[in-house]
């Protein structure tokens, strides 16, 4: 009877030990899985953050490039003389002389804007001089400083849209009077569109044009 009782107690103890081992094993397994899930979640979050940061950088870079491109678009023109704020200004490509005078704070009380063609279209590198009312100077608009201005050193071609009076006088059959008329025409009409337009200038006919056509351009 005693042995039977001892066997029963031993069986109960063994079952209890097995149950305890099972519970401990289950708990340890659960903790390990939880740690792995947490590691996976952290790694995933880290990758998402890096992806978001990269995306933000790309977006910022594109915005900066777009902004820089927008800022650079336009033409640089200088204005001096009788204006309130003489300086170099960044203007829109379709701006005219009147827009530049306004941008420079307007003309002073001593200015004489009647000597300017306020409707003339601005070009990059141009310099506008607003004259004094007592000044006797003629042309107040100087040519842009570029390889296409005035006389080309390579081909000896004169740009009739930007050449000075002295440069125009180097052309065949063009003296003081004709040079002044060429300058007056381009200021009044915003420049020559084609070299044939020079025939619209008084004193320049077909025969004179034939002498000029290989020596002028309008670029």
UniProtKB/TrEMBL annotation:
The residue ranges of the Helix-hairpin-helix DNA-binding motif class domain are 166-185, 196-215
Q: Name one GO cellular component term.
A: type II protein secretion system complex
The record's region (Disordered) falls at 47-71
Q: What Gene3D superfamilies does this protein's entry cite?
A: AF1531-like domain
- One of its Pfam families is HHH_3
Question: A single GO BP annotation from the record?
Answer: DNA repair
Supply the InterPro entries for this chain. Answer: Competence_ComEA_HhH, Endo/Exo/Phosphatase_dom_1, Hlx-hairpin-Hlx_DNA-bd_motif, RuvA_2-like, Soluble_ligand-bd
- Name the domain of life this protein comes from: Bacteria
Q: Which GO terms describe its molecular function?
A: DNA binding
Q: What is this protein called?
A: Competence protein ComEA
Organism, scientific name: Clostridium amylolyticum
């Amino acid at each position: 009877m005693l042995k039977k009782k001892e066997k029963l107690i031993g069986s109960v103890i063994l079952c209890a030990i097995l149950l305890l081992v099972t519970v401990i094993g289950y708990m340890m397994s659960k903790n390990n899985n939880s740690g792995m899930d947490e590691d996976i979640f952290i790694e995933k979050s880290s990758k998402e953050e890096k992806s978001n940061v990269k995306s933000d950088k790309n977006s910022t870079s594109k915005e900066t490039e777009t902004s820089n491109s927008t800022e650079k678009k336009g033409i640089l023109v200088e204005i001096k003389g009788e204006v309130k704020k003489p300086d170099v200004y960044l203007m829109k490509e379709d701006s005219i002389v009147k827009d530049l005078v306004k941008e420079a704070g307007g003309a002073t009380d001593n200015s004489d804007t009647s000597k300017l063609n306020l409707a003339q279209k601005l070009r990059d590198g141009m310099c506008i001089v607003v004259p004094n009312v007592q000044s006797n100077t003629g042309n107040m608009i100087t040519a842009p400083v570029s390889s296409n201005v005035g006389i080309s050193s390579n081909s000896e071609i004169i740009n009739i849209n930007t050449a000075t009076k002295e440069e125009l006088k180097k052309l065949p059959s063009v003296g003081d009077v004709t040079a002044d008329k060429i300058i007056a025409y381009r200021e009044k009409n915003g420049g020559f569109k084609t070299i044939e337009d020079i025939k619209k200038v008084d004193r320049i006919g077909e025969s004179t044009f034939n002498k000029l056509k290989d020596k002028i351009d309008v670029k």
